[in-house]
Write a structure and sequence with these properties.
mainly alpha; single chain; disordered N terminus; about 1000 residues; about 60% helix
């Protein structure tokens, strides 16, 4: 492969382009006999160029080929390498990242075949698989060879990106577990008489115990020994000590195959000065009497891994209460902080800036911060008791102990730093945590992390950025004084100083503790009686606010309400003296935007939250109508009358939303409502009754101003859709039909003009911008839709329905119910439409097909672009539309002969269909569950966001608030979405069978 003098060969240029730093040497290697047949194969060059260090990979490949046992073996390797991409990526990836594993392959040239298999079971091996991989090792040397063969497979998956850093660390810990078991088996085989005398358990601590081991790391252990039945305890402990010491030597000593890793037992009681093996009782006595704070921190990751696992579990179970009670020790937080500072101070000055593990902004900062928070809060929250740093960090975030954004940044930084540490150690399989200084090493390291554009500069920049994030967040999480306050939190704490308030706020997960503290200072500072009462209330209120998705919003709105009502004598007395009021207020203010917005428009409605303010029970429609009509009579004109009616509506919407929130969250004295359907019925019935009463009052106000006591035509409002079905949500429009009938002697044109003026004025007055939410009146379900007249006479409806009515109109009429105006006219309208919606002969097959076509078209045309159909509560599979159309088809087909089906309410009709044997009990329950859940989702979205929506929010905090309303704790939004999908999927299968296939 020669070229003209002064000119570079095309191969030289290609090698440069593929990332080789010494293309001349690479050319010579490619010209070697072993690679002669494939040196120009673009597949090989591309694969080499994709590695972390193409030069290193090529050298390792040449060595491996030269080490093969003859030309047949060499050709087999080359053929497989070129033909099988999985092997090519794995083998060259390892050779380009690890000189030590290249050395291993050169010594054991057939081990490359361990990388050929690519079955699913090979992707995530556990302890059992690694034990099989080590099973043939009968001595320390062969154990090392088998260990490196297993390590080779982990490294291959790691560098190829098949597994991410946390999985790599877990697999390394599993391999360590299998290795400890194999080493103990060798020790027992060498001394069967010792093995017969004792039970020996090996407890892993540190990274091995936490399931997050490095490629090269000390494996920290503690040994627990007991005599077997009938054996002398002293002799048994001596035997166990010999076995433990032999196990350590098997793993730690250097042989012709090197060592595996040091087994370090220095974390045992009394450290190096203490006995290597103790009984469980001796361990327990030491920790109960003598142990220091750091020793409990070390035990946080304790996990039995080898030997007598039952004894190991007894050890962990016995020490767990001591570990999780460590935060109650005097000066606990200060001790842990002091230990961390001592670690940093002991780093040699020349290494501080290159320390990935121990330096400021390093891995240990994350680990210490997480462990401290675990020990402080794990006393009362068992979900935090994980030995794995990232799992514990996730649990801390889910529990609100760490801000979600902070946790996400720490997680990202920790993964990056651990990836750096892994790749640094993998190169030569040496225990180091120092970032290299040599540019070639930095280049390989950067490329191994997929930083291919200017890898050295990019690696340095990313490393410094992540270290800076860790340093900033570590100081925030670890050093903040809140932990002293939380660790020493007295059960009977009754008041907060300003500093204690700040500490408590941070501990409770407030996103903006500085702003929250300002609110608290405004509420509780001073010497007034008002401030004194607030200081009494705030400690308990803060806890309730924190038990929500948005404690900051709860506290902010509480301040606003207090500012508005603080001078009224009854407000603080209500919160202080009426047990339910303060907790109800806290729940309502922190659950979302709708209820606080309604309250802030008339803060005196807070009285509803107490025991004596009328309570949160929705008021009957008759009472609402009576109050609204009385207010209209007192008003000077229609505008004032409708304003009064809208004010009542706003107050009652607040009452209903508060009842819904309190029922969904529960209180300390009253658990959350278990029957979700009851909450849906409460909201639907209350909002529908309130809407009907508001329309009745508005109608009276408009008629009174324009015509006195009597309108020239009888006038009735027919509720349609969810309004007629008593199923309105907080953000629903009022679907209606307007019907009138001229009074005796009144000209039809005059009557029609009067009716149209009434409708126009009602709609205008109900939408005038004001402090009260508007009520949108929608008449699009009328005959001929938007093209038809807004108001018709009863005779006109009769003529239209007799001659022109379409299937969709009959369908829509299933929900028609008189809601306001002339009752007799409303009754006669109902009698008119009953034969249409409950046809005596049922529904013909052509009509059924038409309904199915309409439903299919609606699904395809009305679903918003970009929306996830599986999470759309109204139009998605298994959503409201699916259930309602299925139930309504049953009503159309069987309503004439089944009186129970003649109802406008979905759940009542579904229950009647089940009672009549038209649908199985299981299918009815499935549809009911899906309908209730979808309705709850829509209500939740309105409560949380303050505006209507049919899909789950995308903003994490809003999604969390919806989850909290639906009964899911912090961090379980994913579980909520999965549960919704499951419920909707089951309902859709019932709909497919009943709506599209049967009935």
């Amino acid at each position: 492969m020669t070229s003209a003098p002064g000119r570079r060969s095309s191969t030289f240029t290609r090698l440069l382009r593929h990332g080789f730093t010494d293309p001349s040497a690479a050319e010579r290697l490619l010209d070697s006999a072993g690679l002669a047949l494939v040196r120009n194969d673009p597949v090989l060059l591309d694969a080499l160029g994709a590695t972390a260090d193409p030069d290193l990979a090529l050298r390792g490949l040449v060595r491996l080929l030269e080490a093969q046992d003859g030309p047949v073996a060499r050709q087999e390797l080359l053929d497989t390498l070129i033909a099988a991409k999985p092997l090519r990526d794995r083998l060259l990836g390892v050779l380009g990242a690890s000189e030590a594993l290249a050395d291993h392959l050169a010594r054991h040239p057939s081990d490359w075949q361990a990388l050929v298999t690519y079955e699913p079971r090979d992707l995530h091996p556990g302890v059992e698989e690694f034990e099989r991989g080590l099973a043939g090792a009968g001595d320390p040397v062969s154990l090392r060879v088998a260990y490196r063969r297993c390590l080779l497979s982990i490294a291959a998956r790691d560098v190829c990106g098949t597994i991410e850093v946390a999985q790599t660390a877990a697999e390394l810990a599993d391999l360590a577990t299998a290795t400890l078991r194999a080493a103990l088996a060798l020790a027992r085989a060498a001394a069967p008489e010792d093995a017969a005398l004792c039970r020996l358990a090996v407890i892993a601590l540190g990274k091995c115990g936490g399931h997050e081991l490095n490629y090269v790391s000390d494996v920290d252990v503690v040994f627990v020994g007991e005599a077997v039945d009938g054996a002398d305890e002293d002799k048994a402990l001596r035997a166990a000590t010999r076995l433990a010491a032999h196990l350590m030597r098997i793993c730690s000593e250097t042989t012709v195959e090197g060592s595996i890793w040091p087994v370090d037992a220095n974390l045992r009681p009394e450290g190096r000065n203490g006995p290597l093996v103790r009984t469980l009782a001796s361990h327990l006595a030491y920790y109960q009497r003598w142990a220091k704070t750091w020793e409990f921190q070390a035990l946080l990751k304790a996990r039995p891994v080898a030997g007598d696992l039952a004894l190991g579990e007894e050890y962990v179970a016995a020490l767990q209460p001591l570990v999780w009670g460590a935060a109650e020790r005097e000066n606990f937080v200060a001790d842990v902080q002091k230990m961390r500072r001592r670690v940093v101070e002991n780093i040699p000055a020349a290494e501080v800036d290159r320390q990935l593990k121990l330096g400021p902004g390093g891995l240990r900062d994350v680990e210490f911060a997480v462990q401290l928070l675990q020990l402080v809060h794990g006393r009362s929250d068992a979900s935090l008791r994980s030995g794995t740093t990232l799992d514990a960090l996730k649990a801390l975030a889910a529990g609100g102990y760490v801000g979600r954004a902070d946790a996400a940044q720490l997680d990202d930084a920790y993964r990056f730093l651990r990836s750096m540490e892994h790749r640094i150690q993998l190169h030569r399989l040496r225990r180091t945590h120092l970032v290299p200084e040599d540019e070639a090493d930095l280049r390989r390291l950067g490329r191994s992390l997929d930083l291919r554009t200017d890898p050295v500069a990019t690696l340095t920049r990313e490393w410094k950025r992540h270290a800076s994030v860790v340093r900033r967040l570590h100081e925030k999480l670890f050093y903040r004084p809140l932990l002293d306050a939380v660790a020493a939190l007295a059960p009977g704490e009754a008041r907060l100083s300003a500093e204690a308030a700040r500490e408590r706020l941070i501990a409770l997960g407030y996103a903006d503790p500085a702003a929250a503290l300002r609110h608290l200072e405004a509420l509780a500072s001073g010497v007034t009686r008002k401030a004194a009462i607030q200081r009494t209330l705030l400690p308990v209120l803060l806890g309730w606010f924190a038990d929500s998705a948005d404690p900051d919003a709860g506290l902010l709105t509480f301040r606003k309400v207090s500012d508005a009502l603080g001078k009224t004598p009854w407000y603080l007395r209500l919160l202080r003296d009426e047990g339910a009021a303060a907790e109800n207020l806290a729940r309502v203010l922190s659950a979302g935007r709708l209820a606080p917005d309604l309250l802030m428009r008339a803060p005196e409605a807070v009285a509803l939250l107490g025991d004596g303010g009328g309570g949160l029970e929705p008021r009957p429609r008759a009472h609402l109508e009576q109050e609204i009509l009385a207010a209209v009579r007192r008003a000077d004109n229609a505008v004032q009358g409708v304003t009064a009616a809208r004010g009542v509506r706003r107050r009652e919407l607040f009452r209903t939303s508060a009842a819904d929130i309190v029922g969904s969250y529960g209180t300390e004295s009253q658990p959350a409502e278990a029957d979700q359907g009851a909450l849906v019925d409460l909201v639907g019935g209350a909002v529908s009754d309130l809407t009907a009463a508001t329309l009745a009052g508005t109608l009276r106000a408009v008629v009174r101003e324009g015509w006195g006591d009597t309108l020239p035509t009888r006038f009735a409002i027919i509720g349609m859709g969810r309004f007629g079905g008593h199923e309105l949500g907080y953000g629903s429009d009022a679907d209606v039909l307007f019907v009138h009938e001229p009074r005796d002697g009144v000209d039809e044109r005059e009557a029609a003009e009067a009716a149209n003026k009434v409708v126009s004025e009602m709609r205008r007055l109900l939408q005038i911008p004001s402090a009260d939410p508007p009520l949108l009146v929608d008449a699009d379900l009328r005959p001929e839709g938007k093209s038809g007249p807004l108001v018709r006479t009863l005779k006109s409806y009769e003529a239209y329905y007799r001659r022109w009515s379409l299937v969709w109109e009959r369908h829509a009429l299933l929900r028609a119910e008189h809601v306001a105006g002339d009752e007799d006219l409303g009754r006669r309208f109902t009698e008119l439409i009953d034969p249409l919606r409950y046809p005596a002969a049922g529904l013909g097959e052509e009509a059924v097909r038409e309904i199915r076509r309409l439903k299919a078209r609606m699904e395809s045309e009305r679903l918003p672009r970009g929306a996830d159909p599986k999470l759309h509560a109204k139009l998605g599979p298994g959503g409201l539309s699916d259930v309602e159309w299925t139930v309504q088809l049953l009503q159309l087909r069987h309503g004439a002969r089944e009186p129970g089906l003649r109802t406008t309410r979905t759940r009542q009709a579904l229950a009647a269909a089940r009672a009549a044997g038209l649908i199985s009990e299981d299918d009815a329950a499935t549809l009911d569950e899906a309908w209730v859940l979808a309705t709850r989702v829509r209500n939740a979205v309105m409560l949380v966001r303050g505006r209507a929506g049919d899909t789950f929010p995308t903003v994490p905090r809003e999604l969390g608030a919806v989850g909290r309303y639906l009964g899911y704790g912090p961090g379980h939004a994913g579980d909520m979405l999965d549960a919704y999908r499951r419920t909707a999927r089951r309902a859709r299968s019932v709909v497919e069978e009943l709506f599209y296939g049967g009935l």
